[in-house]
Amino acid sequence: MTSKPSGMVDHLNAEQWGKLSPLMMHHGHFAPGDIVSHRGDLLDHSLLLLDGLVARKVPRGQRARSTVVALQFPGEFVDLHAFPLKKLDHDVVSLTGTSVARIAHDDLHHLLNGDVELARKLWLMTLVDASIHRHWVMRNSAMRALARVANFLCEYDARMTAAYAGERDSLPFSLRQSDIADATGLTSVHVSRTLRDLREHGCCSVSGGQLAIHDRAGLHKMGMFDAAYLYMPQSGTAL
Amino acid sequence: MTSKPSGMVDHLNAEQWGKLSPLMMHHGHFAPGDIVSHRGDLLDHSLLLLDGLVARKVPRGQRARSTVVALQFPGEFVDLHAFPLKKLDHDVVSLTGTSVARIAHDDLHHLLNGDVELARKLWLMTLVDASIHRHWVMRNSAMRALARVANFLCEYDARMTAAYAGERDSLPFSLRQSDIADATGLTSVHVSRTLRDLREHGCCSVSGGQLAIHDRAGLHKMGMFDAAYLYMPQSGTAL
DNA sequence: CGCCTCCTTGAGTAGCTTCAAATTATGTGG
DNA sequence: CCACATAATTTGAAGCTACTCAAGGAGGCG
Lengths: 239, 239
Fold this sequence. Notes:
RmlC-like_jellyroll (chains A, B), WH_DNA-bd_sf (chains A, B), Arc Repressor Mutant, subunit A, transcription (chains A, B), transferase (chains A, B), DNA-binding (chains A, B), 10 strands
């Protein structure tokens, strides 16, 4: 039995989780760098991330680094959009050691046929992904490196906090600077310099697989961060 | 009675359109610059775009220009994601004179309760939007100005062609250069220079409200364009 | 015609990239 | 546990891309 993770799946109530979780008996594991699914694969199941970090990547030629177009945290579906779409436009890559619960599309199909409200909740969860995509478009199009990286780290903080229920001043952080670069549209060299700037501003520091947040308010200000676009289940934000 | 537009709604079959269209008796019009709905508004209906162009914009302070995070073409829903989300994270702005068909969420709710397949089709249409968002993240993060604008124009061409069924070498184009700038994360000055480059390369030219495509293959190459991410209904592409 | 908006062009510069090398972390086998 | 190999980060210097500021031109509309 899969115990209910926090985070995105908090959009589901206990009854809804009670219906969904029995369909996710098969658990799986991936190592850092494993490709969970390839662009264009025909998928017959989706995965709920239980632990670790997964990226959606768009490959760009063999020489260039691929772009990270999305990041998934524990409690989020990694590829729920494959249920209606069947084939994805991007790769799904495990960035850390990850653990996932698998749900077959056939099972999901039958379950959702009998529960319109649950279907709408899953729809909503994919729409929150889309809202985050829009924010990434804005961030990578309209923000300068310092604000961009700060905002990225704010989002990491917020989603990680939601996933592991409870705000901390130091969180596990297993992204490499080149991962941040791929997600923010910068070079890893410039990410390095930008993280130094954030450190020297007294906002936060990344080292030893930990993100230490020294001044959350300052970091939010520097990244012009407003969490509304994350549509957090239990938050009382404006949206 | 709303006659079925081409484009995104081609994902629906005739029967499904037959069920949906009677709910869209109210038609509306907007002028260029009209704000169709504001960020955070509580929405009780969604709009299908019949003619014109609509942008989803994230406002960024009062001084700076707002970022265009998405563009909607005829045959696409402008804010279908408001059905599950209720409140949106962005403004919806009419860029041209537009005509829309309105569908109340209550009506949609009842219709979808009785038709799981139709519900899944509408879900799918919002997921295509999300796929396009991901492409925009990639484009604005990883492409240089020339490729970026070329790719943007390729997308415009493809979606416009789908909306008005039939490939043409000259299409109506009512975006200003500052709109292209807001959508691509460039300045309007640089868009002007970039369009000149594309013109001098013999790819395409924008003038008098028309986009003239002189060398579609060359434009696609310059923008590294692959339409798979658009999940066109009747296309036989790999995805 | 005069006004306003949009587009174009030029000059100077900031921000980020590229390339390359040095330094520090991480992991592995003996 | 150390020595080594590999991967990740940091720093420096030089260059290019795109931005900013500013002025001039073109077109549309009252």
